[in-house]
């Protein structure tokens, strides 16, 4: 498939208020000249992004405040985004995690995670991809995680949602392969973002540690994968090695090793609520 040229065209990014989503928005505006539909709950962050990108790069930014864990929000985001504009790229990046034992995850936390990481991704993929298919062009990217390649104790529900995203994205990519529409699954390992600090995982994993990427370095690889229309992209040599290892080694071994990583450190001192 021909690479996408986003200059003067609209790209929608969910989770554009921080971390990976914010850095992808910055890169797409600065280096690709894309207009951005920026979706998240924190309006002040989206307004600051609009001021930053419109001022520095002469692109347009539509801040779209939405809580993707709520019923109907995915459909509303699609309707508002396509009103009076053509969206040619969509990055479904918003996501939340829970770190701890499954038996300790509150029901609301799980419901929010499932709605944000899974349900909204399916609903928005269906709507935007249908538009792309009608026009015979478009690029969709789903942000998964290396956590989705094998079961991950103490982030079990999160890893399961990311497994869903990988499976769903790859299946959808095949269904759309002759339509001119690309579906990229982007599966990073650890990134130094709010997700790492809010979940308490930053007490064990820090920026600069082996395998933990900065959000801007990770965003560069993600945007490249979207533009080049790769089907699956795992950023970083170590993460690619781990992803391959997870395919080759028995899952029982991987589960034991990843559990040991947490059991030795973080679980002895659980994150504060
Ligand atoms: N950090 C990592 O180590 C890591 C590793 C692998 C994969 N990932 C994946 O990368 C993606 C981005 O995460 P990140 O690391 O950049 O974390 P982050 O800094 O916490 O960003 C998460 C983004 O999602 C948005 N979001 C969360 N819940 C939302 C909701 N209900 N409705 C709308 N927006 C919502 C947040 O915005 P608001 O709070 O303003 O709504 C924020 O912009 C996620 O899908 C994550 O699973 C992260």
TrEMBL record:
One of its GO terms (molecular function) is oxidoreductase activity. Residues 9-194 form the Ketoreductase domain. The keyword Transferase does not apply. The keyword rRNA-binding does not apply. It comes from Corallococcus sicarius. GO terms for cellular component: membrane. It holds the Pfam family adh_short. Transmembrane segments: none annotated. This is SDR family oxidoreductase. InterPro entries: KR_dom, NAD(P)-bd_dom_sf, Sc_DH/Rdtase_CS, SDR_fam.
């Amino acid at each position: 498939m021909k690479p996408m040229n986003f200059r003067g065209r609209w790209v929608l990014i969910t989770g554009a208020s921080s971390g990976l989503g914010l850095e992808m928005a910055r890169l797409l505006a600065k280096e690709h000249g894309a207009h951005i539909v920026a979706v998240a709950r924190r309006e002040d962050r989206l307004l600051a992004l609009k001021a930053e990108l419109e001022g520095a790069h002469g692109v347009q930014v539509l801040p779209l405040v939405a809580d993707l864990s709520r019923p109907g929000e995915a459909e509303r985001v699609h309707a508002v985004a396509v009103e009076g504009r053509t969206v040619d790229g969509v990055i479904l990046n918003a996501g939340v995690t829970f770190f701890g034992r499954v038996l300790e995850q509150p029901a609301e936390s799980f419901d929010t995670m499932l709605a944000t990481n899974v349900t909204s991704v399916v609903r928005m993929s269906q709507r935007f991809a249908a538009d792309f298919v009608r026009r015979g062009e478009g690029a969709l990217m789903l942000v998964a995680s290396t956590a989705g390649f094998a079961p991950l104790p103490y982030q079990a529900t999160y890893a399961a949602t990311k497994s869903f995203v990988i499976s769903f994205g790859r299946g959808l990519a095949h269904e759309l392969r002759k339509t001119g529409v690309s579906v990229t699954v982007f599966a990073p390992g650890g990134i130094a973002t709010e997700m790492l600090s809010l979940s308490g995982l930053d007490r064990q994993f820090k920026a600069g540690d082996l395998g933990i990427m900065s959000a801007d370095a990770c965003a560069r690889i993600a945007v490249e994968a979207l533009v080049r229309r790769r089907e699956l992209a795992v950023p970083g040599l170590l993460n690619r090695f781990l992803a391959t290892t997870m395919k080759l080694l028995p899952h029982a071994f991987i589960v034991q090793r990843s559990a040991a990583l947490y059991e030795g450190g973080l679980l002895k001192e659980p994150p504060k609520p």
